[in-house]
């Protein structure tokens, strides 16, 4: 078995979900420059997280979209553009069929 594979520099760290107003103190090796004064009066390193068990839909039972990088908007725009392209191609095909039918009738 490999030696020195797992980190050994565990220390108390506060993880904070500012959206839900939830924070907890645990042991971690996560590196950060922020600190926070905790409930026991001591100062601990602070790691800010976007989603925690207090704000994740699986644990809360409610659907909430937290889009920090604009992924949802990009997906909706891409889907709308695909629909517009599909409609454009359908109308083009319909016009071509009408012209072909007109030529056949003559």
Structural features, described:
The protein has 2 helices and 4 strands. The protein is α+β, with helices and mostly antiparallel strands and 106 residues long. The protein has a 4-stranded mixed β-sheet with strand order 2-1-4-3, with no helix packed on it. A hairpin with a 4-residue loop joins strand 1 and strand 2. It is elongated and about 90 Å long.
Mean pLDDT: 86
Q: Which class of secondary structure composition applies to the elements?
A: alpha+beta
**Run of helices and strands:** EEEEHH
Cα-atom radius of gyration: 28 Å
Instruction: List the total number of helices.
Output: 2
Fraction of helical residues? 25-40%
Spans of at least 5 consecutive residues whose pLDDT stays below 50 are none
How far apart lie the N and C ends?
Answer: 85 Å
Number of strands: 4
Let me know the largest β-sheet.
Answer: 4 strands, mixed
Which labels suit this protein?
about 20% strand, 2 helices, alpha+beta, 4-stranded mixed β-sheet, about 110 residues
Write the layout of secondary structure elements.
Blueprint lengths: L10 E7 L4 E7 L6 E3 L5 E6 L8 H4 L10 H35 L1
Summarize the structure.
By secondary structure, this protein is of the alpha+beta class.
